[in-house]
Design goal:
- The complex is a heterotetramer of chains A (about 80), B (about 70), C (about 350) and D (about 280).
- With about 70 residues, chain B is an all-alpha fold.
- Chain B has one domain (about 1-70): ACP-like (Non-ribosomal Peptide Synthetase Peptidyl Carrier Protein, Chain A), CATH 1.10.1200.10.
- In chain B, about 65% of the residues lie in helices and about 0% in strands.
- Chain B has helices at about 1-10, 30-45, 50-55, 60-70.
- Chain C is an alpha/beta fold and about 350 residues long.
- Chain C has a six-stranded mixed beta sheet with strand order 6-5-7-8-2-17, sandwiched between helices. In chain C, strands 1-9-16-15-14 form a five-stranded mixed beta sheet, with helices on both faces. In chain C, strands 3-4 form a two-stranded antiparallel sheet.
- Among the domains of chain D are: about 1-90, no CATH class; about 130-235, Aminopeptidase.
- Chain D is globular, with a radius of gyration of 20 Å.
- Chain D has nine helices and 13 strands.
- With about 280 residues, chain D is α+β, with helices and mostly antiparallel strands.
- The chains are: A mainly alpha (about 80), B mainly alpha (about 70), C alpha/beta (about 350), D alpha+beta (about 280).
- Chains in contact: A-D, B-C, B-D, C-D.
Chain lengths: ~80, ~70, ~350, ~280
C-alpha cells in the first residue's frame, strides 16, 4: 500500500520525491489544492469516502498518516 | 391557463399542482426547470420573464398572477 | 483578424431541407432520462422537430436538387457560374472534391474553379469570405457558395447531447460584384488547441474506421457513442461561445463604425435556443432581432443554419426590403467569425423541400 | 446566511456532505489558519441548501462564495435556490481545477445567472537559474507601518480585487515581519515591491508591482531577481496569472516558468468583465 500511495502522490506532483520521510505539508510539497485532488483520488481508488472531519492538512502530511487515514476509513491493509 | 398548468405539472414531475405550492420546494427543481418554464411562458404567452422574476414569484399561484398581469400589458 | 471587402453583393439564397421530419418525442426512448427532463430540454433548448435525410441521401443530391430548381425557374444560368465553393464536413469521398462531382453532374463549363472547404458552424462566413476574395479577380463575376451537411449520419441515436439538435440540409448562396459602392466588414479567429471540442475521432487517416472504432461506449452522462460518431463537449462549447462571441461583435461594430442599434438582425449560427438567448442577454440584443427558432423547427445543420435562419425568418421580405445584418458563426475548429453586410433586393430567398 | 463560530462547524458540515457517499465537488480548500482568522473577524458565513454547503467570505465590496456538494446535479439544485436569496449580494466564485473538468462547473454557474469574469492560470518553475542584474537600487526589506500602509493602498489602487484576492493590512505586516516583502523606496514613495511566501521546497510569488511612474527602470527585474535569490532553497516557484494577460505570460515564459493545467475560472453574478489595467 505504501508504494501505491507514493505513486498517487507522484502523479499529483511529479516534480517531488515522496519516498523520503518528509512532512509533505511543512516541506511545501503538497498544498491545499493538492489535498482536495488527493482526497478525490483516494476516494475513487479505494472505493471509500474519507470522513469530512479528516480533511485536514496534517492527515496528509506523510505516507504513514495517509495510510492511517485509509485504515480508519475502512481500507484493509 | 389550464394548458399551461398541465405543462407545469409535466415539467415538475407531479400529478397535480396546487396554487400555494412553493416552486422551490419541488424535489426536481433545478436550473433547467426554470429555463424551461421561462421558455414555455415565452412560447405560450409571447413575453419573456427573467429567472429572477420567476423565482421571486415564490408560489405557483403568484407565478400565474404574474403571467396574467404581464399578458394584460 | 479584421477583413474588409468592397463592392460585393449577395443576390440570392436558397435553402434545401430534407422533407423527412423526425420528432424529439419519438426519440426520447433512445435516451436514458426521465420524461420530465425531456420536456424541460425540449422547452429550454428548443428540441422539437428536426429534418434528417433518408439513408443514402448525400450532399450532392441536396445541392443538385437546389441547382435544378434555380435553373428551371431561370433565376440562375449555368454558364454564368465562375466558381463553386462547397463548405462541408460530410464530403462524398476523401478524394475527389465533392464540388467537382457536382460540377460534373450539372454539366457546368470547364472554365471555372471548384473547391471544398472543411468547416462547420462558421462555414457560411468562411464561404462568404472566400467568395469575396475570388471576386477580386477580373475573370470571376459570379460565385456560388454551397453549404451542405448530412451529419445526422455520424451522430449516435443514443447521444442526447447531439442527436436531438442535429439537422441536415444544404443552401445555395449567390455572390456577385456590384457597381454600387459598398463595404462589407468581417472578422475571423481560430483556436486549434481546442480541436477536439467538436470532433469525429475515427474515420480519417489518423484513426481509420475499424470494427473496434464502431464499438458503442457509454460515457459518464449515460450517452452511447462510438469513435466513428460525432462527439461534442457541450459545456466547453457553451463557455467558448459566451466568452468569445460578444467581444467579437463589439470589435466588428467598432471596426465598421456602426452602432449596435443600426443592425436590423443578428443572424447567428443556431446551436440551440438557450445558447442564443444567453448570447442575446449578454449582448443586450432583443430576442426578436436574434432569431433562435431553427433548432426547434429544423435542427442545426452546421454551416446551413444561418441561410436557414435568413430564409425562414425573413424570406420574401428580402426580395423587396433591405436590412443591415450581422452574421456570426462559431464552433468546430474552433473557429469564430462575423460579418456585417447589407442584405436585400434579392432575386430569390426561400426554402424548398427535398 | 449564518455566521460560522468555530472551525469545527465547517468540518461537521463537510462530513455530512461527504457522508452522503455520492461524490464530492468543491472549490473550498481548507487553510486552517486563514479560515480561523476570518472566523475571528466575523467574515465567515455558511448556508446549507439541499446537499450542498455554501460558505461565504465577506470581502465588504463583494462576497466570495465557496461550495461543497455531493454532485453536479445537487449543486445545480442548490444554486438555483441560493439565487433567490443572494440576489442583492455581489457574489464572486473561484472555480479551481483542471481543464476541461472545471468547464462543466462553470457552465452550471452560468446556467444559474453567473457570468465569467476572467480566468487565471497557475504557472510554475522547477529549477532556479540566477540571472544577475546589476543593481544600484536600494532594495529594502524592513517595511515599517507607513510603508505597509502605502503598499496596501497601491495594491487596492492598482490590482483587481475580484481577480487577485487582496490582503489586508495585517497580512502585509506579517509578510514584512517575516522578510517576505521586498520594496524600493524613492523620495518617501514606494516605486515597486514583491511579496512572496516560502513553504518548504515551494515558493509562492504573491504580488509583484512596479509603479507606472517608474516603469522601464528595471525595477521589476531587480525585484524579481532578488525574489529568485531568496527562493534559492526552494525547488519550485509558483504563482497565478490572468490568462488573457499575454504580455505578462510572455515575460514569465522568458524567466523559465511554464503553464500548469490548473485554472481558476472566476464567475460573478454581476455582468461585469475584467478590464486590463496597467499593472
Amino acid at each position: 500500500m505504501k508504494q501505491q500511495i507514493i505513486n498517487i502522490l507522484q502523479e499529483i506532483r511529479p516534480e517531488f520525491d515522496f519516498s523520503q520521510n518528509f512532512n509533505f505539508i511543512e516541506e511545501g510539497m503538497l498544498d491545499s489544492f493538492d489535498i482536495v485532488s488527493l482526497v478525490t483520488t483516494l476516494d475513487e481508488k479505494y472505493h471509500i469516502s474519507i470522513d469530512g472531519m479528516d480533511i485536514l492538512p496534517e492527515n496528509f502530511a506523510t505516507v504513514d498518516s495517509i495510510i492511517n487515514l485509509l485504515i480508519k476509513n475502512g481500507v484493509n491493509q | 391557463m389550464e394548458a399551461f398548468i398541465k405543462k407545469l405539472e409535466g415539467i415538475l414531475e407531479v400529478d397535480k399542482i396546487e396554487m400555494d405550492d412553493v416552486l422551490l420546494d419541488f424535489e426536481e427543481w433545478d436550473s433547467l426547470t426554470s429555463l424551461s418554464i421561462i421558455a414555455t411562458i415565452d412560447a405560450d404567452f409571447h413575453f419573456s420573464i427573467t429567472a429572477e422574476e420567476l423565482l421571486s414569484a415564490g408560489t405557483v399561484g403568484n407565478l400565474i398572477k404574474l403571467i396574467q398581469v404581464k399578458s394584460k400589458k | 483578424m479584421n477583413l474588409k471587402f468592397n463592392n460585393k453583393l449577395i443576390t440570392g439564397i436558397l435553402t434545401i431541407l430534407p422533407a423527412n421530419e423526425v420528432k424529439f418525442e419519438d426519440e426520447i426512448a433512445n435516451y436514458n432520462f426521465s420524461e420530465a427532463k425531456s420536456l424541460k430540454l425540449k422547452m429550454a433548448m428548443g428540441y422539437n422537430t428536426h429534418r434528417i435525410v433518408e439513408e443514402g441521401v448525400t450532399i450532392s443530391d441536396l445541392c443538385i436538387f437546389g441547382f435544378n430548381y434555380l435553373f428551371e425557374k431561370e433565376i440562375l444560368k449555368k454558364e454564368e457560374i465562375d466558381a463553386i465553393i462547397l463548405v462541408t464536413q460530410s464530403p462524398e469521398y476523401f478524394m475527389p472534391p465533392t464540388s467537382n462531382v457536382i460540377q460534373g453532374k450539372l454539366g457546368l463549363k470547364q472554365d471555372m474553379i471548384c473547391m471544398d472547404i472543411n468547416q462547420g458552424c462558421a462555414g457560411f462566413e468562411i464561404g462568404l469570405i472566400q467568395a469575396f476574395m475570388l471576386l477580386e479577380q477580373e475573370a470571376i463575376n459570379k460565385v456560388v457558395l454551397l453549404n451542405a451537411d448530412v451529419l445526422s449520419q455520424k451522430v449516435s441515436k443514443r447521444d442526447r447531447n447531439s442527436n436531438p439538435l442535429i439537422g441536415d440540409g444544404a443552401s445555395i448562396t449567390i455572390i456577385e460584384k456590384t457597381e454600387n459602392k459598398n463595404s462589407i466588414f468581417a472578422n475571423i479567429k481560430m483556436d486549434g488547441t481546442a480541436f477536439d471540442a467538436l470532433i469525429i475521432p475515427a474515420g480519417g487517416f489518423k484513426t481509420p474506421s475499424t470494427p473496434a472504432t464502431s464499438e458503442m461506449i457509454e460515457d459518464a452522462a449515460g450517452n452511447f457513442r462510438s469513435l466513428n460518431n460525432l462527439v461534442m463537449k457541450g459545456d466547453a462549447v457553451f463557455n467558448f461561445v459566451q466568452k468569445e462571441v460578444p467581444p467579437m461583435i463589439d470589435n466588428l461594430l467598432k471596426y465598421s463604425g456602426y452602432q449596435r442599434e443600426n443592425v436590423d438582425y443578428f443572424m447567428f449560427h443556431q446551436p440551440n435556443k438557450f445558447m442564443l438567448q444567453k448570447l442575446a442577454d449578454k449582448m443586450g440584443v432583443p430576442y426578436h432581432k436574434m432569431p433562435n427558432n431553427i433548432v426547434e423547427n429544423f435542427g442545426n445543420a452546421s454551416g446551413v443554419s444561418i441561410p436557414t435562419a435568413i430564409t425562414f425568418n425573413l424570406g420574401q421580405k428580402l426580395i423587396k426590403e433591405k436590412y443591415k445584418i450581422c452574421l456570426a458563426g462559431f464552433g468546430v475548429g474552433l473557429t469564430w467569425s462575423s460579418i456585417l453586410i447589407d442584405l436585400g433586393n434579392l432575386d430569390f430567398c426561400e426554402i424548398i423541400n427535398y | 446566511m449564518d455566521k460560522v463560530f468555530y472551525f469545527n462547524d465547517i468540518q461537521v458540515i463537510i462530513k455530512k456532505i461527504k457522508g452522503l457517499n455520492t461524490g464530492y465537488i468543491t472549490n473550498f480548500y481548507l487553510e486552517v489558519d486563514r479560515i480561523n482568522a476570518l472566523i475571528n473577524k466575523n467574515q465567515f458565513y455558511k448556508k446549507i441548501i439541499g446537499n450542498t454547503a455554501f460558505f461565504f467570505k465577506d470581502d465588504y465590496e463583494f462576497i466570495h462564495l465557496f461550495y461543497c456538494s455531493s454532485s453536479i446535479d445537487e449543486l445545480d439544485k442548490s444554486l438555483t435556490r441560493l439565487r433567490t436569496e443572494m440576489d442583492k449580494y455581489h457574489l464572486v466564485v473561484d472555480i479551481i481545477g483542471k481543464q476541461p473538468n472545471i468547464q462543466s462547473i462553470a457552465y452550471l454557474f452560468k446556467m444559474n445567472g453567473f457570468f465569467e469574469y476572467t480566468v487565471l492560470n497557475r504557472m510554475s518553475r522547477i529549477s532556479i537559474q540566477d540571472m544577475a542584474v546589476k543593481s544600484q537600487l536600494n532594495l529594502k526589506i524592513d517595511a515599517d507601518s507607513t510603508n505597509c500602509k502605502q503598499i496596501f493602498d497601491l495594491l487596492h489602487q492598482y490590482f483587481d480585487p475580484i481577480a487577485e484576492q487582496l490582503p489586508d493590512l495585517d497580512e502585509i505586516k506579517n509578510w514584512a515581519k517575516s522578510n517576505h516583502l521586498l520594496f524600493v523606496e524613492e523620495n518617501g514613495e514606494i516605486s515597486g515591491f514583491v511579496i512572496f511566501d516560502l513553504i518548504g521546497v515551494t515558493s509562492y510569488l504573491r504580488y509583484w508591482f512596479v509603479h507606472p511612474k517608474h516603469r522601464n527602470k528595471k525595477i521589476g527585474s531587480i525585484l524579481l531577481n532578488e525574489y529568485f535569490k531568496r527562493s534559492e532553497e526552494t525547488k519550485r516557484q509558483i504563482f497565478w496569472v490572468i490568462q488573457s494577460n499575454d504580455n505578462a505570460i510572455k515575460r514569465y515564459l522568458h524567466y523559465g516558468f511554464q503553464s500548469e493545467n490548473l485554472y481558476d475560472i472566476i464567475v460573478t453574478n454581476n455582468n461585469i468583465k475584467y478590464e486590463t489595467t496597467n499593472n
